[in-house]
Design brief:
Chain A has about 375 residues and is mainly α. Chain A is built from 15 helices and no strands. Chain A has a single domain, classed as ABC transporter involved in vitamin B12 uptake, BtuC. In chain A, helix 2 packs across helix 14, helix 4 packs across helix 13 and helix 6 runs antiparallel to helix 11. The longest helix of chain A is centred in the C-terminal third of the chain and has 32 residues. In chain B, the strands form 5 sheets. Chain B has a 6-stranded mixed sheet with strand order 6-7-8-3-9-10, with helices on both faces. Chain B has a 6-stranded mixed sheet with strand order 16-19-20-13-21-22, with helices on both faces. In chain B, a hairpin with a 2-residue loop joins strand 17 and strand 18. The chains are: A mainly alpha (about 375), B alpha/beta (about 600). At the A-B interface, helix 1, helix 9, helix 10 and helix 14 of A face strand 1, helix 16, helix 17 and strand 18 of B. The complex binds adenosine-5'-triphosphate and magnesium ion.
Chain lengths: ~375, ~600
């Protein structure tokens, strides 16, 4: 038997590795800044102050958290089934566009909650639409979803740009964008805060996904497909349908996130509006080690990074994409941490001698991100 | 020691020199550089131009590969070595011989499980040491400790009399302890030579072409007649295992650990493996072999250590084996292993089944994984109440046959009918609902989901049926209860139903798979190597269970590469060769010789002579 497989049980260590990976990324990023003549400590202070300390920044962080939560909840479904949806950005965009068009079309003529619902459904449909094509290609023709979803991103950018310059354009303004949903009709704030209720939707999404994997047959089957496809075939599970549906669901969540941003913040869809949540979501879901409830703290962390990063150019003379670099570094450090973790098993065993007593962060069905990484290679 | 009796006193057998060089690779103790290797080095320098950096590479390669073939010693020493007599001589001398490895009072706990409880194991140079014990006795754990995979909770390990700690598999290798895992570590897309050289501490520059010719010779010595440049994925399992052994030996192995190496081999391959092991013994290597097949253990080993419930319960040295005689030794081992004699293996009542035909394949063909035609126009009928044994050498289509019946593999021609209804290419889910159970031989590859619990794996195949699911929702209680029932029925050894499946011992995983399949109450049971990795008692239990299932009106298709097993419980036997059933026999009419020939050549008569 594969004795190494015995070693890769989930433990409390994964969170430690994730946190260490983040710290290391900051250290390396800091060295990089220093090497470029910037004051790293100053830059980081700005980053943290902006994202965490200022009341205003905290509000921004919580607002950002909504799409982060929704998108990563969806990505978690796909990755647990070992489906690599690189096309989140495209799905998000199409969802946002449809939500903007539908929302603006009915705004004022129906009660707001109904308008939000219509826009959300339009967003979900948009995201799913963009995921259905790669899903079909994957299931019917066995085409690699990494490539097809990636390609669909480019298609989305151009199709959305064309639509928003043509058929869906709000002719009353110069810029190519959809008709604006009036400020009064946007999503309301959570009482006592200035954060719109999208955050609650995001948290709900995570809870739904957690329940999905904890207690439903569907979630169980996705886990089987993700962990051992051959076993899934052997057990008679409809592997293609499961994997395809995971991709489409992931698209639906991305579309919902698009609707959320339109209804909560933007009020409209602009050409070339691409917040690029997809990559961040990958980093987020991996650092959360494919564990649904861990998505919440990590979503908070990444949101504050994005918000703080936005203020770095002005106040610390560090470009925004430094945060993207940090995310990349985190993924790399994370891969290293996972490797070290394997070595650690041997050492910790020597100390404690009881590898079976490790704390498992979630239901026993959650694959460790380690396995996820192995799937990628 | 043994080999000194067997091999001529002078001149020094060529082979020993080679293995010395084989075994000293990876450490650079000066005494390893025998004269011959120096010579071959100089020879190399004349024939080839090398830079300093490369020199180190080729030195090592040269040491291993630039040596004379071993055939001379090989043949004689093996031929003249009788295990028993050899053994006696060995013990007398052994009093003076220092053990290579002694493990003392090794403890290893996994949560509540004491996998090793003060286990001791002493290995001498030049012996083959069998570690025996029932499923879950702690054999693999002990080997994992010696190979650095696990750290012991207590006890000491001494190497050449000096205490050592083995922190990782690579440290073990550095100490000369090499392991051949059942799941090989070769890279399928690299050639044999690349695999062998990969990971040796030879620097970055490889000089493959120089070593190639010599590796070819080493391969021949190991009865591997393949081109060193062929990719490993094209080799058979037995061949891969040998490459694995060579690879491990190249890293300077003086202690070779083999965990159930024979369960994946055909009988001929087993013989070949044993020839190699005996030869390594002659060279002073200490070999540890875990097996569930007592006959094999008695055939090949000088010394036997028996574990039960994680404890040492017995050791038989060469004189014990010699004085008890083979049958006596066997009995003693079985008694010690199971703590008393298991109920005498019952002989199964075979009968000609007259029930209705439950499964019918007619003219079925299918393509194998590598695009070859795996099954050719094959037809069989299985009646209710019978066990139909498929005998054949692995790789003749039996796996594909099982997969077709299970619905896992599409057929290109022909028809599959269950109880008269057409189910051709109906798919796994449909066939399983229609009453086909399939026990795969690839238990870790497709049988179970690593990382999921015992309970989840036990429910895997029927997860979307009652009682495990209530519509959309899982019923965790039912899943757990079901697992506990199966654990009870098949006495699966596991701390709990929530334990990860991969933490169970090999045999216990197999038991759980069998239990899961039979719990689905299939009408047609297809099993591929159902006793693979099971201890004697459990294997017997499984065969009994299959017989009972058949007697209760089910149809069983038993695929196995072990003819004994097939002969033991089948009512009818079909020999599969190259994707075809070449002959079928009623049990009473079986002639073992003929079956053997059919398995090997597809023909009953030796070519040229009239049958
Ligand atoms: N990493 C682990 N974590 C928890 N339990 C383990 C682990 N490894 C082994 N065990 C337990 O220790 C016991 C001994 O297992 P081991 O694999 O050594 O048995 P074995 O003698 O090799 O059995 P088999 O013949 O079935 O292969 C078993 O009960 C097994 O469940
Ligand atoms: Mg074992």
């Amino acid at each position: 038997m594969n004795e190494r497989a015995r070693m890769s049980s989930i433990s409390i260590l994964p969170i430690v590795s994730s946190v260490l990976a983040i710290v290391m990324a900051f250290v390396i990023g800091g060295i990089f800044l220093e090497a470029n003549g910037k004051d790293a400590l100053h830059a980081y202070r700005i980053l943290f102050e902006r994202g965490l300390v200022n009341g205003d920044g905290l509000t921004e962080t919580f607002k950002k958290m909504a799409p982060m939560l929704i998108v990563s909840a969806g990505l978690l479904i796909a990755l647990r089934a070992s489906v690599w949806n690189i096309g989140i950005d495209g799905q998000f965009m199409v969802g946002a566009l449809l939500a903007g068009v539908a929302g603006a079309a009915v705004a004022g003529s129906v009660p707001n909650p109904l308008m939000w619902l219509i826009a959300a459904v339009a967003g979900i449909i948009g995201g799913m639409l963009w995921a259905v094509i790669p899903a079909l290609l994957m299931v019917k023709f066995n085409l690699n979803e990494i490539i097809t979803t990636l390609m669909m991103n480019y298609v989305a950018v151009n199709v959305c740009a064309w639509l928003v310059k043509g058929p869906f354009r709000d002719s009353s303004v110069v810029a190519p964008q959809t008709k604006q949903i009036p400020l009064a009709d946007r999503l309301p704030f959570i009482p006592g805060t200035e954060v719109h209720i999208g955050l609650i939707v995001g948290l709900l999404c995570v809870v739904v996904v957690a329940i999905l994997f904890r207690s439903t047959v569907y979630g169980f089957c996705l886990d089987v497909v993700g962990r051992n496809r051959k076993a899934a075939i052997h057990a008679g599970l409809p592997v293609g349908r499961l994997a395809g549906s995971a991709l489409i669901l992931c698209g639906a969540f991305a579309g919902l996130a698009g609707a959320n941003d339109v209804l909560g913040i933007q009020g409209l869809f602009k050409a070339n509006w691409d917040p690029g949540y997809g990559f961040t979501a990958f980093a987020l879901v991996y650092l959360a080690r494919l564990n649904s409830l861990l998505l919440i703290p990590f979503a908070f962390f990444f949101s504050f990074l994005l918000v703080g990063g936005d203020s770095m150019p002005r106040r610390a003379d560090v470009p925004t994409y430094f945060v993207g670099m940090l995310e990349g570094l985190m993924l790399i450090c994370f891969a290293v941490a996972v490797y070290l973790e394997r070595r650690w098993h041997a050492i910790s065993e020597r100390i404690r001698g009881r590898p079976d007593d490790r704390i498992e962060p979630e239901s026993s069905s959650g694959p460790s991100a380690l396995e996820g990484l192995e799937i990628s290679s | 020691m043994g080999h000194e009796i067997a091999s001529p006193p002078a001149p020094l057998p060529v082979g020993r020199g080679e293995i010395e060089r084989l075994t000293c690779l990876g450490d650079s103790r000066p005494h390893c550089h025998s004269e011959r290797s120096e010579e071959s080095l100089r020879g190399d320098e004349v024939t080839g131009m090398r830079e300093r950096k490369e020199k180190h590479v080729s030195t090592n390669l040269g040491e291993v590969l630039h040596c004379e073939p071993l055939v001379s010693t090989w043949g004689t020493s093996v031929g003249t070595t009788d295990d028993m007599t050899d053994g006696t001589a060995t013990t007398q001398e052994r009093a003076m011989v220092q053990p290579i490895v002694s493990m003392r009072e090794i403890d290893k706990r996994f949560g509540p499980v004491r996998a090793n409880d003060k286990v001791s194991l002493t290995l001498y140079p030049g012996e083959i040491h069998a570690v025996l014990g029932e499923n879950g006795a702690g054999k693999t754990t002990l080997m994992n400790i010696l190979s650095g995979m696990y750290q012991p909770d207590g006890g000491t390990i001494e190497l050449d009399g000096k205490p050592i700690t083995i922190g990782s598999p690579s440290e073990a290798l550095a100490h000369g302890i090499g392991t051949v895992y059942q799941h090989f570590t070769l890279v399928p897309n690299l050639s044999v030579i690349e695999n062998v050289v990969l990971g040796t501490k030879t620097g970055f520059v490889l000089n493959l072409s120089k070593g190639e010719q010599r590796l070819k010779e080493v391969l021949t010595e190991f009865e591997l007649n393949t081109d060193p440049n062929v990719e490993v994925r094209h080799l058979s399992i037995g061949q891969r295992q040998r490459v694995e052994i060579i690879k491990v030996l190249m890293r300077g192995t003086r202690v070779l650990l083999l965990d159930e190496p024979t369960s994946v081999l055909t009988p001929t391959e087993v013989e070949g493996l044993f020839r190699i092991l005996r030869r390594l013994r002659e060279e002073g290597v200490s070999v540890v072999i875990i097996t569930h097949k007592l006959e094999e253990a008695l055939d090949v080993s000088d010394r036997v250590t028996i574990l039960r419930g994680g404890k040492n319960v017995g050791e038989l040295g060469p004189d014990d084996i010699a004085s008890a005689g083979r049958a006596g030794a066997r009995q003693r081992i079985v008694e010690t292993m199971f703590g008393g004699m298991p109920a005498a293996a019952e002989t199964f009542q075979q009968h000609v089944a007259t029930g209705k035909t439950l499964l019918e394949l007619s003219g079925v063909s299918a393509i194998g994984d590598r695009g070859e035609i795996a099954i050719r126009e094959l037809s069989i009928q299985l009646r209710a109440g019978e066990i139909y044994g498929i005998a054949g050498v692995d790789g003749n289509g039996q796996k594909e046959l099982g997969e077709i019946i299970a619905g896992q593999r599409k057929t290109t021609t022909g028809r599959l009918a269950l109880d008269g209804t057409d189910y051709t290419n109906a798919g796994v889910a449909t066939l399983s609902r229609a009453g086909v159970g399939y026990i795969t031989d690839d238990r870790l590859g497709e049988g179970v989901v690593p990382g999921m619990s015992v309970a989840q794996n036990a429910a895997l195949k029927t997860i979307n049926r009652s009682p495990f699911s209530k519509g959309f929702w899982l019923d965790r209680k039912a899943i757990e209860a079901n697992a506990n029932t199966l654990i009870e029925q098949f006495s699966v050894r596991t701390p709990s139903a929530q334990t990860k499946i991969t933490l169970l011992s090999g045999g216990n995983i197999q038991k759980l798979m069998l239990a899961r399949e039979l719990a689905m109450d299939p009408r047609v049971i297809v099993c591929n190597k159902p006793t693979y990795g099971l201890d004697l008692k459990t294997a017997q239990f499984v065969l009994q269970t299959l017989r009972q299932e058949a007697d209760s009106g089910k149809a069983v298709l038993l695929i196995s590469s072990e003819l004994d097993e097939i002969l033991e419980i089948s009512d009818r036997i079909g020999v599969i060769y190259n994707g075809e059933i070449v002959e079928t026999f009623e049990r009473a009419q079986v002639d073992i010789e003929t079956v053997g020939r059919l398995m090997l050549s597809g023909r009953a008569a030796v070519a040229g002579s009239a049958a």
